């Protein structure tokens, strides 16, 4: 049995044992005996990777790039459209502002002209009323003056008579008084 256990142990270890001898040959990828199989597997692997990249990765990447390009183009066209709308809105605003300013200037001019005409009419009315009052005052002054001129002789006569009487003690006669007043007035 001892012999059996030893052979079983050797059999189980035979597949798992690592040879203890050193490899004295070149590095396996550089071994010239395996070049042909390495080149074959390199060509198969390269072809497989090339086919996967060409048929799977590149179309996906191309689709993503195309989507991005379309999205960027759409965004740029939307930005240009919005910019044009903004420019149109600014132009419309400036036009409306210019029209409003012109309208305001027109209203101000019309209002100034209306106020000037109203003031001119009031001034003319006031001047006409003043002219009437002035004419009435001048006629009243002329009337008072004529009345005063008519009475000046009587007043002057009475005053002169009172002065002569006060100075001389005796009042002058009416004929002497009227002669003296006539000669003084002429």
UniProtKB/TrEMBL annotation:
Residues 1-11 have a biased composition (Polar residues). Keywords: ATP synthesis, Cell membrane, CF(0), Coiled coil, Hydrogen ion transport, Ion transport, Membrane, Transmembrane, Transmembrane helix, Transport. CDD domains: ATP-synt_Fo_b. The chain crosses the membrane at residues 35-53. GO terms for molecular function: proton-transporting ATP synthase activity, rotational mechanism; proton-transporting ATPase activity, rotational mechanism. Its main location: membrane. One of its GO terms (cellular component) is plasma membrane. It is a single-pass membrane protein. Residues 76-147 form a coiled coil. It comes from the Bacteria. It is found in: Cell inner membrane; Cell membrane. Signal peptide: none annotated. Residues 1-29 are annotated as: Disordered. HAMAP family: ATP_synth_b_bprime. Belongs to the ATPase B chain family. Component of the F(0) channel, it forms part of the peripheral stalk, linking F(1) to F(0). The b'-subunit is a diverged and duplicated form of b found in plants and photosynthetic bacteria. F-type ATPases have 2 components, F(1) - the catalytic core - and F(0) - the membrane proton channel. F(1) has five subunits: alpha(3), beta(3), gamma(1), delta(1), epsilon(1). F(0) has three main subunits: a(1), b(2) and c(10-14). The alpha and beta chains form an alternating ring which encloses part of the gamma chain. F(1) is attached to F(0) by a central stalk formed by the gamma and epsilon chains, while a peripheral stalk is formed by the delta and b chains. This is ATP synthase subunit b. The lineage of its organism: Bacteria, Pseudomonadati, Pseudomonadota, Alphaproteobacteria, Hyphomicrobiales. The gene is atpF.
